[in-house]
């Protein structure tokens, strides 16, 4: 979390800094945690946070950003649901001199000046961490993988797919045999896994499932159990986020690996914003958070650390 003193120095004692936050929705446990942590950070820093939930729709996010501009906020935080189509509204923010900070997802644009910085993990790297783990675990044996992708057109779905594929390149024993989107949602992860199991004769030939987030992995675990197989043993489970529910699954032997993603994107964003408002200090254009591989041996400790964070 950005230090109170830092922000206090920039905000004139009397008037609070106002930040508009356009959030994607509440598709996953990780997203819920990001929302609560952002609100908490704002409260601690004395920032007036205007929160808007886009219910997964880009058009709602565009409307929210326009309304923040009309309200004359001091800055805008946005977690962009998909990667393309942001230039016009971000130009409007720029013309109004309102800095925009992207949280957790990135955008495709030719104009880097449209946002001050982006806080997030290297999502290609996350996919590679998951893929490297599986290549190592398969240890040269044949391994058919099914992949449950995130939201189509979102930066983490595109990048986590790419990073995983990169890690598998040159290891012909490990192969992705099916791939479909589950929209980062637990119920859809379950449905997609059910369809994979059906299409693959009940799943005996599936060695592993790679889900682009933990929620979809938790859904897949249920589908595997319903099909009479043991998740974590008959079918390996690897995913990304590090939410409390995946640590519970690890403790039960039903999840094998997850890649940690901090829900505190707002902390570094508020710190960068405070420095920028104070004396124009430009942050790096990308502020990268850590991506650690988390295995069952630390599941209990990780669960204890995270269980009260608003997931
Ligand atoms: O991994 C997933 C979520 O954008 C990086 O979005 C984020 C992803 C996160 O809903 O759970």
TrEMBL record:
Its main location: other. InterPro entries: Peripla_BP_I (IPR028082), SBP_2_dom (IPR025997), YtfQ_transport (IPR054837). It comes from Lichenibacterium minor. Keywords: Signal. Pfam families: Peripla_BP_4. One of its GO terms (cellular component) is cell envelope. This is ABC transporter substrate-binding protein. It is found in: Cell envelope. One of its GO terms (molecular function) is carbohydrate binding.
């Amino acid at each position: 979390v950005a230090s109170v003193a830092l922000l206090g120095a920039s905000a004139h004692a009397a008037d609070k800094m106002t930040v508009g936050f356009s959030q994607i929705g509440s598709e996953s446990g990780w997203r819920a945690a990001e929302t609560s942590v952002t609100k908490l950070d704002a409260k601690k820093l004395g920032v007036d946070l205007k929160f808007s939930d886009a219910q997964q729709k880009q058009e709602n996010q565009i409307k929210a950003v326009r309304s923040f501009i009309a309200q004359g906020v001091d800055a805008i935080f946005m977690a962009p649901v998909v990667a393309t189509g942001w230039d016009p509204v971000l130009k409007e923010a720029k013309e109004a001199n309102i800095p925009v900070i992207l949280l957790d997802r990135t955008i495709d644009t030719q104009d880097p000046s449209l946002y001050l910085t982006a806080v997030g993990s290297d999502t290609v790297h996350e996919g590679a961490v998951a893929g490297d783990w599986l290549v190592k675990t398969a240890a040269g044996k044949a391994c058919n993988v099914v992949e449950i992708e995130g939201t189509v057109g979102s930066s983490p779905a595109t990048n986590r797919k790419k990073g995983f594929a990169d890690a598998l390149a040159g290891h012909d024993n490990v192969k992705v045999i099916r791939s479909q989107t589950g929209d980062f949602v637990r119920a859809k992860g379950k449905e997609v896994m059910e369809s994979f199991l059906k299409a693959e004769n009940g799943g005996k030939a599936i060695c592993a499932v790679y889900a682009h987030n933990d929620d979809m992995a938790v859904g897949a675990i249920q589908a595997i159990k319903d099909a009479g197989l043991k998740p974590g043993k008959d079918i390996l489970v690897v995913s990304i986020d590090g939410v409390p529910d995946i640590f519970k699954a690890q403790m039960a032997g039903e999840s094998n690996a997850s890649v940690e993603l901090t829900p505190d994107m707002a902390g570094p964003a508020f710190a960068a914003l405070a420095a920028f408002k104070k004396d124009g200090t430009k942050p790096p254009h990308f502020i990268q958070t850590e991506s650690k591989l988390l295995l069952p041996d630390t599941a209990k400790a990780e669960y204890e650390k995270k269980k009260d964070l608003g997931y």
